[in-house]
């Protein structure tokens, strides 16, 4: 069983192929970004997703 700081992640296996060159609309992405904490050293690549 996997935990981090007392939380258990919710994981789903997605089978199949992802379509290429598909982008999430900025308005939709903004909803998810509210839960992101960016690293000071690598803000573009290293994020922590804060559970709701």
What is the topological layout?
Elements: H1 26-33, E1 36-38, E2 47-49
Describe this structure in words.
Helix content is 15%, strand content 12%. It is an alpha+beta fold and 52 residues long. The protein has a domain of 34 residues. A two-stranded antiparallel sheet has the order 1-2. The chain is extended and about 35 Å long. The mean pLDDT is 89.
**CA(first)-CA(last) distance:** 20 Å
Shape: extended
Largest sheet: 2 strands, antiparallel
Secondary structure tally, helices: 1
Task: Strand order, main sheet: write it out.
Answer: 1-2
Helix content: 10-25%
Measured by DSSP, the beta-strand proportion falls in 5-15%
- Rg, please? 14 Å
Give the SSE string. HEE
Which residue ranges are poorly predicted, with pLDDT under 50 across at least 5 consecutive positions?
none
What structural class results from the helix and strand content? Answer: alpha+beta
What average pLDDT do the residues reach?
89
- The counted number of beta strands is 2
Organism: Leptolyngbya foveolarum
Protein name: ISAzo13 family transposase
């Amino acid at each position: 069983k996997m935990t981090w700081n007392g939380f258990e992640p919710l994981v789903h296996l997605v089978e199949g192929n992802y379509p290429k060159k598909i982008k999430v609309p900025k308005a939709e992405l903004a909803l998810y970004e509210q839960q992101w904490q960016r690293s000071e050293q690598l803000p573009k690549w290293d994020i922590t997703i804060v559970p709701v």
